[in-house]
Amino acid sequence: MGDTWYLRSPNASAGVAVGTYVFRLAITVAGTAPISAYLRGATDDVLSSIAVNGVNQPGNSGWGFGGVVNSTTFTLLPDVNVIEAQVTNGSGPAGMAIEVRKGDGTLLSPISAWKYSP
Hints:
Oligomer: single chain
Helix content: under 10%
Largest sheet: 5 strands, antiparallel
Strand order of the largest sheet: 4-3-7-1-10
């Protein structure tokens, strides 16, 4: 994983307002079989929650700036899947660097594919 961070705004590295920011990503799974996947990354300040297709994925909150973390695995269904990450900023700079990987570690979606959702 590189050092690329997805920031909410161009000046996010200098600081943004305290609050929770939502990032979304759409991933299309080809074929007819579901696949196992997980997230790998870090957030600044804290990952508040992860949802896949509107379903909260328990046990995946509390990530922070301390290092790269892997989420628990979840299932992506054939066709379009939407992953939502809520990142809470307590103060100062804010951002996230999260990749989506298949269960075997293959990269499904890079950090740059996430979209901020106001």
